[in-house]
Specification:
Layout (H helix, E strand, L loop, with lengths): L6 H13 L7 E8 L10 E6 L4 E6 L16 E11 L4 E11 L2 H18 L15 E6 L4 H13 L4 E6 L7 H13 L5 E6 L4 H4 L5 H8 L5 E5 L7 H5 L2 E2 L3 H7 L4 H40 L1 H40 L1 H47 L1 H6 L4 E3 L17 E5 L4 E5 L11
Parallel strand pairs: 3-5, 6-7, 6-8, 8-9, 9-10
Antiparallel strand pairs: 1-2, 1-4, 2-3, 4-5, 11-12, 12-13
Helix pairs in contact: 3-8, 4-6, 10-11
Length: 447
């Protein structure tokens, strides 16, 4: 009777057979990467390779011990070196990978990783990135003049920011001479007063785009006199030029948007800011106009001219009161005399006429004195007003005079206080002239 075996025993036996088979150890297997997954947290990479008919599972334990990044991607053709082993838990055999070789584009990607590691170690990626100007005047564009990229970039820039000037330097963007073409273009842009240099091309195969992994080109981009922008291929594509440029853009169109402001939005923002400034200025003007009106009213009631006017009114009122009192007094005496005259016309007639004449004379004398006094006061007031008019600065300005102050706002009345090299401020009617003292020339009369 045959013996029964457990599943574990069978899987272990098969695993032992395979692991002891020298033809399955250190074996090289060629195929196309498929079922690719990102490495696990512990760094193990699980994937498969296939040919036209079959597939085989693969595992690379702790891949980051040997590679800074996964050296291939889905679809790459690779040659894997490793051992065939059985995972006893599932009974599935797999290739435990020890070494990776990449064919075709895979070799280019390996070169990219190696160059990236080298330049990063030299510090080329950590050089301080230069900011792009917000409002460029000139943009240097390095790309093919026949591809879709140049059309997309130019049209986007013209639509967003039509006032900027574009200097196009056409170059080859693939092939053996492409890198040297782009280097010459950078040399040319260094001699131009551009604000930004954009290096771009549209999508393509990895082999076509690999010109932007050129080491000499990378080092030249770092030395560019102007801020540089790299926009190669699509968003998922990364090249050495992206790491050494000041800015990396996902696509040519995205680069055009990154390096230019949108003029219509700028105008909207300026309009809003202008409205805010006008509102604030109107508030400030209203405040100072109100303050000036208060000062003007205060000056009206406290100025010398106003005081003289008030004093003149007081004098006129006093004279009027005196004149009225005098008339009342004379009327009173006249009435008394009339009464006395009626009582004793004959006895008092001569005396009445004498007193009446005397009163008329007194009246004339008082009126004459009053008028003389008033004329004297009027003369004094007129004289004061003339002197005030002479001293009034606005009248002086209207007559062609000016007033000069020094930097401490001290009125210049004596040339002895003038210092060579100091500023003078000469106030005219509607403006102030600022001048610098170069020389003081004295009149001969002074001596």
């Amino acid at each position: 009777m045959k013996r029964n075996f457990s599943v574990s025993q069978i899987n272990h036996y098969i695993g032992t057979l395979i692991s002891n088979d020298i033809f399955l150890q250190g074996i090289r297997v060629e195929g196309e990467v498929c079922a690719f997954k990102e490495p696990s947290k512990n760094g193990h990479l699980y994937f498969e390779i296939k040919d036209e008919n079959c597939r085989i599972k693969c595992i690379y334990f702790d891949i980051f011990n040997d590679y800074p990044e996964v050296p291939f991607k889905e679809g790459d053709k690779v040659i894997l070196t490793g051992n065939i082993e059985v995972y006893e838990y599932t009974g599935i055999y797999q290739l435990v990978v020890k070494k990776i070789e990449i064919e075709g584009e895979g070799k280019l990607y390996k070169y990219f990783l190696e160059l990236k590691q080298k330049l990063e170690a030299e510090g080329l990626f950590s050089i301080t990135k230069r900011p792009l100007p917000k409002f460029p005047k000139k943009i240097g564009l390095i790309t093919s003049n026949t591809g879709a990229a140049v059309h997309d970039v130019v049209e986007t820039i013209k639509k967003r920011y039509p006032i900027v000037k574009i200097i196009l330097y056409p170059v080859k963007v693939q092939g053996l001479s492409a890198a040297s073409d782009i280097i010459k273009a950078l040399d040319y842009m260094d001699g131009e007063d551009v604000d930004i240099v954009l290096i771009t091309r549209g999508g393509g195969s990895y082999e076509e785009l690999s010109v932007f992994n050129d080491e000499n080109l990378a080092r030249r981009i770092v030395k560019s006199e102007h801020p540089t922008v790299s926009a190669i291929g699509h968003a998922e594509d990364f090249f050495i030029s992206d790491f050494v440029a000041d800015i990396r853009a996902n696509t040519p169109t995205a680069a055009a948007e990154d390096i230019t402001p949108e003029l219509s939005m700028m105008l909207d923002e300026l309009y809003k800011e202008n409205m805010k400034v006008n509102y604030r200025m109107n508030n400030i003007l209203d405040f100072y106009i109100s303050k000036l009106e208060m000062l003007n009213n205060s000056i009206k009631y406290t100025s010398p001219a106003k005081k003289i006017e008030n004093r003149l009114l007081e004098i006129q009122n006093i004279l009027k009161q005196f004149d009225n009192a005098l008339k009342n007094k004379i009327l009173k005496y006249s009435n008394v005399l009339d009464i006395k005259m009626n009582n004793s016309k004959t006895a008092m007639q001569k005396k009445f006429y004498f007193e009446k004449s005397r009163l008329n004379l007194i009246n004339k004398t008082i009126n004459s004195s009053t008028k003389l006094k008033f004329s004297h006061e009027q003369f004094i007031l007129d004289n004061l007003e003339s002197r005030i008019d002479i001293l009034d600065l606005e009248n002086l300005y209207n007559r062609g005079y000016s007033v000069t102050f020094d930097e401490e706002k001290t009125l210049i009345k004596d040339s002895d206080i003038i210092e060579i090299g100091k500023n003078l401020y000469t106030k005219l009617l509607d403006k102030t002239i600022v001048s610098k003292i170069m020389e003081v020339i004295y009149d001969e009369k002074r001596f």
